[in-house]
Amino acid sequence: MAAVFAVVSVAANAQVWMGGELGYQNTRVSNDGNTLAKQNVFTLAPEVGYTLNDNWDIAAAIGFGHVDDDDASTNSFTINPYARYKAVKAGNFTFFLDGGFAYQLAHTHGVDDNTNTWEIAIKPGFSYAVSPKVSLVAHVGKLGWAFSKTGDIKTNQVNIGVDNAVSFGAYVSF
Fold first, then answer.
1. Residue 34, pLDDT score
2. 2-173 is a CATH 2.40.160.20 domain
């Protein structure tokens, strides 16, 4: 009975929000006007979350990615549950920390082995409330650890900083 009461209390106070991030990156490497390599990266990461109270949210993102380059193309699927701690609020701005884990499965066409990646990370960010129901969000940097495995090849990676880890999105609250 106490567990049911706790779930109902949380659900009654929770505010559902939806949104996510959409990304595109184009890279060209050239020498004396001759293109040596090019790459296009598309990402889509819809999210859904619950605001539990003034300081905490829980959420999950499901990401899809596609990379086209000169040698091959890769498709990926990511699932990323996380908790958000809203640390500082100033007017319409909120500084937050997202902490969670992610799993990504990537398949490169023409390669037999898929790549499996597991990551634990904290991503700082901020949001700007355009209205009571709409917020613009940016993540700036990452502190985390990732482990990848493709066949017998294993990779450990530590991420500290903002290099290539800036993303933008929008959320709508209901």
1. 85
2. yes
